[in-house]
Design a protein that fits this description.
- It is a single chain.
- With 72 residues, this protein is mostly helical.
- The chain contains five helices and no strands.
- The protein has one domain.
- Helix content is 58%, strand content 0%.
- The longest helix is centred in the middle third of the chain and has 23 residues.
- The protein is elongated.
- The structure holds zinc ion.
- The site of zinc ion has 5 residues, from helix 5.
- This is CbtB-domain containing protein.
Amino acid sequence: MASSALTPSATVPDVTPVSLKEIAPWAVLVGLLLLALLYFVGAEQGATSLISGENVHEWLHDGRHLLGFPCH
Ligand SMILES: [Zn+2]
């Protein structure tokens, strides 16, 4: 009983492989969400602004400075 616990097969976790076809739609979704976040943090100001006013810029202002985007 103790010797069977030391065999390599007993230590391998039972992991089901995930194919790239299953991950691809989620990777695209997460990539688009991250690109949108990058736009709002880095480019939602002035000439590149899609939303009028300064509210979005002010809400993300600290993140803008934290990531080193030019601001003021
Ligand atoms: Zn600033």
